[in-house]
């Protein structure tokens, strides 16, 4: 399965609670943090929900 790197680029201040919890579920605790995940449909759905707060790059 393909891997993706998810980086938080924007603050979660003033975001709805559901988006804050989605970032926590992705493992993102602070700005600039990068985590690696499998590109499963569940993870891609979470990334899509907070796409304005994160950047996504395909891992090599």
Automatic annotation (TrEMBL):
Name listed for the protein in its UniProt record: Large ribosomal subunit protein uL30
Entry annotated with the keyword Phosphoprotein: no
Single GO molecular function: structural constituent of ribosome
Organism: Flavobacterium humi
Entry's transmembrane regions: none
Family: Belongs to the universal ribosomal protein uL30 family.
GO biological process terms held by the UniProt record: translation
Signal peptide boundaries: none
Domain of life: Bacteria
Keyword line: Ribonucleoprotein, Ribosomal protein
Boundaries of every Large ribosomal subunit protein uL30-like ferredoxin-like fold domain copy: 5-54
Keyword Ribonucleoprotein: yes
GO cellular component: cytosolic large ribosomal subunit
Any Pfam family hit: Ribosomal_L30
InterPro entries for the chain: Ribo_uL30_ferredoxin-like_sf, Ribosomal_uL30_bac-type, Ribosomal_uL30_CS, Ribosomal_uL30_ferredoxin-like
Complex and partners: Part of the 50S ribosomal subunit.
């Amino acid at each position: 399965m393909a891997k993706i790197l998810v980086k938080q680029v924007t603050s979660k201040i003033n975001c709805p609670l559901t988006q804050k919890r989605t970032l926590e579920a992705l493992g993102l605790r602070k700005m600039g943090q990068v985590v690696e995940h499998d590109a499963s449909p569940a993870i891609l759905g979470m990334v899509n929900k907070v796409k304005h707060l994160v950047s996504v790059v395909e891992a090599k």
